[in-house]
Prior knowledge:
919 residues; mainly alpha; 5% strand
Amino acid sequence: xxxxxxxxxxxxxxxxxxxxxxxxxxxxxxxxxxxxxxxxxxxxxxxxxxxxxxxxxxxxxxxxxxxxxxxxxxxxxxxxxxxxxxxxxxxxxxxxxxxxxxxxxxxxxxxxxxxxxxxxxxxxxxxxxxxxxxxxxxxxxxxxxxxxxxxxxxxxxxxxxxxxxxxxxxxxxxxxxxxxxxxxxxxxxxxxxxxxxxxxxxxxxxxxxxxxxxxxxxxxxxxxxxxxxxxxxxxxxxxxxxxxxxxxxxxxxxxxxxxxxxxxxxxxxxxxxxxxxxxxxxxxxxxxxxxxxxxxxxxxxxxxxxxxxxxxxxxxxxxxxxxxxxxxxxxxxxxxxxxxxxxxxxxxxxxxxxxxxxxxxxxxxxxxxxxxxxxxxxxxxxxxxxxxxxxxxxxxxxxxxxxxxxxxxxxxxxxxxxxxxxxxxxxxxxxxxxxxxxxxxxxxxxxxxxxxxxxxxxxxxxxxxxxxxxxxxxxxxxxxxxxxxxxxxxxxxxxxxxxxxxxxxxxxxxxxxxxxxxxxxxxxxxxxxxxxxxxxxxxxxxxxxxxxxxxxxxxxxxxxxxxxxxxxxxxxxxxxxxxxxxxxxxxxxxxxxxxxxxxxxxxxxxxxxxxxxxxxxxxxxxxxxxxxxxxxxxxxxxxxxxxxxxxxxxxxxxxxxxxxxxxxxxxxxxxxxxxxxxxxxxxxxxxxxxxxxxxxxxxxxxxxxxxxxxxxxxxxxxxxxxxxxxxxxxxxxxxxxxxxxxxxxxxxxxxxxxxxxxxxxxxxxxxxxxxxxxxxxxxxxxxxxxxxxxxxxxxxxxxxxxxxxxxxxxxxxxxxxxxxxxxxxxxxxxxxxxxxxxxxxxxxxxxxxxxxxxxxxxxxxxxxxxxxxxxxxxxxxxxxxxxxxxxxxxxxxxxxxxxxxxxxxxxxxxxxxxxxxxx
Length: 919
């Protein structure tokens, strides 16, 4: 036992400066680095790496850690009481002889050249030392200590004072040796980091002309992003490992992550909750210390304070964007990548801190939301829980440890990190209490490992390097940890990051293939569902369906350009007349016709018509015509679209109908007629209305037919209004059993008297004099005994005279329909044909306007509408919310889910392949 202990101490006590000088002199650091990466540990690796990183001494095993601590204590004691212990284990002479044999078998430093010159020699020595290590595992240190404890107790009793003094000196010496060893190791690793940076830069320089292959950790990070998009609730689909950093608010969890990333990348607040959304940080090795977000190409140089400040501000802005109105935290994950020389490869997720109460300005459910979010992330059975505990406060005040114990009661994936231990020492904390935390005996929760770190010196502006130097100095001189032999591997953030990275990759290798099998089964189920439910459709997702709809919508504009000139102009003619007919009859034709009856001169008709038509053409007609053109274009587009859809109903895809209709409606709403066509249309209409001459029989017949149909329509409308006012006729009363109201009876009596007046004077003007109204009122009162108001007489007169005028005009229109040749012969005396000339001017103006509008539509507006449709389609293509709203149904969601599963499965297979190659 003594021989084994002294052998290990001899190896640890090798002169490291001498070894380093030999290695540098022979330029063998690169070979050492290669051995480290290929995991072919030579003797130099064993001497340069800390013993606590060897699997035999891994701190994650508490029993083995305690045995190792006992071994060190035992070694110190043996130095003091060599003879006593020698006699206890078998006698000093035999031990001395055996020890000398072991020392003689050890080579001196001169065999280093042979080791590095011949790999076989290194492998032989490596195998020998491994057998020694395996032999050490067979020792039951606890039993040995138990056997010799009576002897040690007795020796201590005889010379207690001297024993304690020498024991303290031995412990102090051992601590100094450990710290010196640690310092030398950090120096070597710093040099190794610089060498790796040079190698990485050289590698990148050689690969600058070809695509750089993604690193393993980058592939894994992209895989986690895909899984997060596929299942944002972290349910059964996503069981891949990541490191979940949790802790009470202001416990220092964000600072722990920054120390691992070696940069101040997160916003900080004095006591205020700053982390409002999960932040996924992917750490990877690279030649430069930079950071970037998943959805941005910009890189932030973490060696420059200005860009660090900009990065912290960007993180804060993104957190605020993820938080919806009325909430204080968000479940939306912010993804970030940090690269740098010497960084341990892993994926960490920083979560909002657990709070005990809700303060003013927070949403009432903030505390519960944080707990639910934390529980959801920790529920992943392969997530590594990095539980951060403030070492400067009482352990009983911790909220997070109970939560972790509920999720991981056996501690199979939990690592406890004790922060702010420097403040604990200032506060005169009990050393035994701190040691109980690091040994796992204080908290009820269990863990894989326990670490103590320092992540700050009290100022937010402290650099990472200064904090690391402060951390090293503190643990070198700390009273809390000076008497704790064997826990050096549980101190500093550097040891923490190495342990977490090792645990992370171990869990990744154990679970990634299982996850790939799970997605393979999911893909099979989805493909089976598609074959059973949608066998005649292609597997098109929303984007593919949108592109299909895009082509069909744009084809509708092409179909619109195929509409014939006749169809366009017929539609425009009808819409134009329907739009202006009321104004022409009420404001032009009737006032001009009434003027003829008042003045008994037909010349006044053309005068009134000229004035009113010119005024109408200058002020209202052009704008109204353009509006009609826009309406016709819209109606024709929709009509053609519906017609084509009905014709293609069997071949069309009904799932696209909502999208196409929404795009067309939006484009038509945005479309507006070009204003520069307004002035041109005004000039054309004014010139057209000035020409009253009808030159041929065809135009005469058209004008006569137009006049006749217009008068018939207005006569029918007037008859309907008059019938509604006066009630049913005698015929309808007898044969249809209808009756009149009292008001209708009075109106009917007034109508009878007014018709008698017009019968006696067919050329009566449209105005009813006061005397005539009084006379009619008195006559009606004498006949019925009921008084009649003058207003009632005037209202009835308006419809009665209007009906009389239209009947007279219609009779004249029928008479002049066949008088074209008489019109040509009496060209200078054509006042008797004033009404047909007016309607010829109207119909000609409508035709010319329709022709202009049709040319504008086909030459300009269709192209502009096509452009607007493209703009709407482009906007919709970038708006996933609109696409999800307009393209719905199981067929769409099934394809998207299937595509995501395929993509994730492919990434899993690529990652597994890369992982196996690295192994």
